[in-house]
Design brief:
Blueprint lengths: L1 H17 L10 H6 L3 E7 L4 H16 L4 E7 L5 H10 L6 E2 L1 H7 L9 E5 L5 E6 L4 H11 L1
Parallel strand pairs: 1-2, 2-3
Antiparallel strand pairs: 1-4, 4-5
Length: 147
């Protein structure tokens, strides 16, 4: 149920930011996601074995480093709505998942390989794009070098 509310909140926040009459004064999508933390956006797909193996690592990262990092999943195949929630549950994804429109609004190009992980700094600037499976340890070391 929490995933439903998270998905709805993300969609509503992005909708509101897109409807502002003054583009310069509207909040940017990155400011809606970052909130003073590093933001990790991970593309995944049902058919991608390395993606499946990476999910527990990202769950651990989201849980252990919640004070400094927020993790979002983006389904590469464009699954959204209830189907995305069901698929996220089936794969044991504990962090929020969003549809591909979130990545488009953030200006993240569709990756050519999976899994792909994109990292934003606490100010909302994209600082890294990582191709291939990540671990909690490798990502934690990356964030430790940034602080």
């Amino acid at each position: 149920m929490t995933k439903i509310y998270t998905l709805l909140a993300l969609t509503f926040a992005l909708f509101l930011s897109a409807c502002s009459p003054e583009p310069d004064s509207s909040p940017q999508p990155t400011s809606l996601l970052v909130g003073g933390k590093y933001t990790v956006i991970n593309y995944w797909a049902e058919w991608c074995k390395p993606c499946r193996e990476e999910i527990p690592e990202l769950n651990a990262l989201a849980s252990q480093y919640a004070k400094d990092v927020v993790v979002y999943g983006i389904n590469f195949d464009g699954v959204n709505g209830e189907a995305l929630i069901a698929l996220s549950d089936e794969f044991g994804i504990e962090y929020p998942s969003a549809d591909i429109s979130l990545a488009q609004k953030l200006g993240i190009p569709r990756p050519i390989a999976l899994p792909t992980t994109v990292i934003f700094d606490p100010e909302g600037k994209q600082i890294r794009s990582l191709v291939g499976p990540q671990t909690t340890e490798s990502l934690a070391k990356f964030f430790a070098t940034k602080n």
